[in-house]
Amino acid sequence: MKTYIGVDLGGTNVRVALVDEHGTVLQDKKEASEVDKGVPYVIQKIIRLIESLDNYENAEGIGMGVPGPVDTVAGKIVVTNNLPGFAGEPLAQMIQDHFKKPTFMDNDVNVAGLGEATLGAGKGKSIVYYITVSTGIGGALMIDGKVIAGKHGHAGELCNIVVDRNREARNGLAAGALENEASGTAITRKGKELFGDSIEHAGDVFQLAADGNEQALELVDSVAYDLAQGFAATALVIDPDIFVLGGGVMKSKEIFFNRFHNYFKELVFPGMRDIEFAYAQLDEPGIVGAAMLPLAYIKNK
């Protein structure tokens, strides 16, 4: 049985795991990232955690998932708010130099998408587009089991697709950007504007809608339409076999998915209305997807 090592490096925690070729997490370790102590400190922590895994030395390779766009060729983070001081550092090469094993790195949404494409809801499909709707909106494109990152590491991202240029620009994105109109953060913001501080998160808005509140239903309908615009624009460029949906907002899928899907079918070409939609299946797509990076890159060489 072949095994791989996955590394999930975030601003708060770093987690490493030994994963088999079927996506089973055999063993994992986690500690606080302590990114404020600098790159060398964090790299040594990752090395120590990997070396604490049983039989780590027999792993075929190492994959790393990190926040923000990644130069996958150079193994460097392009830019990240969660790991200050880490942009431009050859993190993958540092790990590879120590363990003498092929090491690859990609952004956290991409590796989660890879996990779903190879072992989850997209398994067996040629073109898989994974989208997570949560605090923000992130996307990842996988073709024949390989993540398509693009020259600048931004391929697959749909957060800045404009759904209405007459709306307000926020958070460094374009006016009317999808993330600012249909993410969990956006739903919470709009809910507070309607209902005040009784809204703590997007789930509160969905609950009001489920209870029949007309204003909440109108808001959910508006968000569903905006989301459908983003998906339809993406579909017309990518024409995927399947969209795989993940993220916290999907916990309320029974409230909005049918509205969203109907709008999507109105907005795409008639011949594309049969594009499949599925919900993410893996419990831990991030760490499993990171571990699958070496397998994907080695297979596609």
Question: Could you explain the architecture of this structure?
Answer:
The protein contains 9 helices and 12 strands. The chain folds into 2 domains: 129 residues, ATPase, nucleotide binding domain (Nucleotidyltransferase, domain 5), CATH 3.30.420.40; 157 residues, Nucleotidyltransferase, domain 5 (2-Layer Sandwich), CATH 3.30.420. It is α/β, with parallel strands linked by helices. The strands form 3 sheets. It has a 5-stranded mixed beta sheet with strand order 3-2-1-4-7, sandwiched between helices. The radius of gyration is 20 Å and the shape is globular. Helices cover 38% and strands 21% of the residues. Helix 5 packs across helix 6.
Descriptors for this entry?
2 domains, Nucleotidyltransferase, domain 5, 301 residues, 9 helices, transferase, single chain, 5-stranded mixed beta sheet, alpha/beta, ATPase_NBD, glucokinase activity
